[in-house]
């Protein structure tokens, strides 16, 4: 992985340490949300944004600001953010930085590769891919449509309903047109939790 800005590096180190601490304590993950800055931004207010939806579960948001699809793949495959055993459910929310800053980076192909690696390496993990969060600066709907096709071809859950009602121009929801305020994060996580609950129940039924 290329050198990161200090904040992003600290976020990555914190995620890696969290995974290691869970493993050392014998806590097996029920759910991980992997992502970039919006996922990382859930941590300072996780007691309000995240934890109420996953009581009794081992569930963490693992994010790094500025993360591309390729960097997330490195974080999971080589960088210490892959728990042992794998999580029961993993949600992959990444691609904004590819689309806005590196549009020729083949982000869709790299997401396809990452999902394929996860399916091969974590065969009992249920995967989910959400639509990318709305942004004031770039229309991400075409890329999300490509994500939907990749997920469909691989038999992976895709969902877009959690973006309903999110408006990048609404300063109660968004900080800057890209990053969500705690209220926006809480709205999205509430929806995401409802989406993944059947996946968690399915893995419980399967043992």
Describe this entry's structure for a reader.
- InterPro entries: SGNH_hydro (IPR013830), SGNH_hydro_sf (IPR036514).
- Residues 34-184 form the SGNH hydrolase-type esterase domain.
- Pfam families: Lipase_GDSL_2.
- The protein has helices at residues 6-24, 37-40, 46-49, 69-77, 96-101, 107-121, 141-154, 182-206; strands spanning 31-35, 59-63, 89-93, 126-130, 157-159.
- The protein is an alpha/beta fold.
- The protein has one domain (8-200): SGNH hydrolase (Rossmann fold, 3-Layer(aba) Sandwich).
- A five-stranded parallel β-sheet has the order 2-1-3-4-5, with helices on both faces.
- α6 (107-121) packs parallel to α7 (141-154).
- It is globular and about 45 Å long.
Give the biggest beta sheet. Answer: 5 strands, parallel
The residue-averaged pLDDT reads 95
Please write the CATH class name: Alpha Beta
Distance between the termini: 36 Å
Structural class: alpha/beta
The geometry reads as globular
Q: Number of domains in the coordinates?
A: 1
Oligomer: single chain
